[in-house]
Amino acid sequence: MFDIRHRNLVKLLGYCSNPNFKALVLEYMPNGNLDDWLYTHNHFLDIIERLNIMIDVAYALEYLHYGYPEPVVHCDLKPSNILLDENMVAHVGDFGIAKLLGSDDSIAYTKTLATLGYIAPEYGSEGIVSTKCDVYSYGILLMETFMTTKPSDEIFFENLSLKVWVKNSMPNRVIDIIDANLLAPDEEPSTEKIKCLSCIMELALRCCLESPVERICVKEVAATLQKIKRQLACSI
């Protein structure tokens, strides 16, 4: 996997190895990670910036799933693994538990090592890994990015989850679940802005369908987000 190269992946520059210390040398990302930007008080991302980041992540997954000779499944997509360079371009990092599928394989079996809250059902219960696992994680990440609510938040218990909360709020109460900081206190959101936010959440839900075969593919995710971005830009 050392020959993987893409604009939206963190570059591996080299490695250090001796009997007492082993480390990878990665490209420096001066703007930290998405988790910091979502949950640190002195950071803020507007709607377009969040869309740009999620489009970058979608392009990274598209390359991993379709642009490399053998599909690569990241297996641990979450905000802390989305790093931001000096231009706020997103780069997917941390391939510590990534899986390389055979050229003729669409799934693999492994131990479940990913972060709770982002794990696809089939991966968590049966250890089944496919590119659709990343799509599921991406859907959770997409919800979180526009809601600023972690899937592990203490408000979720028993049958209530981030995904269920979004599903129950669609399509008429999307404003109630998105990050309040995205709208100024005295701002009356336009119909077009509400429509775009609803489309983003609907897309996230399509990524998070229980059945892997029913989930949208990441190529369509990237194209859909670009369309939403164009619509949103015209309404601002």
Please outline what is shown here.
The protein is of the alpha+beta class. It is built from 8 helices and 8 strands.
Secondary structure tally: strands: 8
Number of helices: 8
Distance between the termini: 42 Å
Q: Give, in order, the helices and strands.
A: EEHHEEEEEHEHHHHH
Instruction: Report the CATH C-level class.
Output: Mainly Alpha
Helical content stands at: 40-55%
- In CATH terms, the superfamily is Transferase(Phosphotransferase) domain 1
Number of individual domains: 1
Radius of gyration: 18 Å
| Secondary structure category | alpha+beta
Shape: globular
Largest sheet: 2 strands, antiparallel
Query: Can you list the strand order of the major beta sheet?
Result: 1-2
Report strand %: 5-15%
Q: Per CATH, which architecture?
A: Orthogonal Bundle
Q: Write down the overall mean pLDDT.
A: 88
CATH topology tier name: Transferase(Phosphotransferase), domain 1
Instruction: Provide the low-confidence segments as ranges.
Output: none
Description:
Helix 2 runs antiparallel to helix 4 (131-147). The model has no long low-confidence stretch (mean pLDDT 88). The chain has helices at residues 34-39, 47-67, 121-126, 131-147, 162-169, 174-177, 191-207, 218-235, and strands at residues 12-18, 21-26, 72-73, 82-84, 90-92, 99-100, 107-109, 128-130. The chain starts with 11 loop residues before the first strand and ends with a helix. It is globular. With 236 residues, the protein is an alpha+beta fold. It has one domain (31-235): Transferase(Phosphotransferase), domain 1, CATH 1.10.510.10. It contains 8 helices and 8 strands. The chain has a two-stranded antiparallel sheet. The chain has a two-stranded antiparallel sheet with strand order 3-6. A two-stranded antiparallel ribbon has the order 4-5.
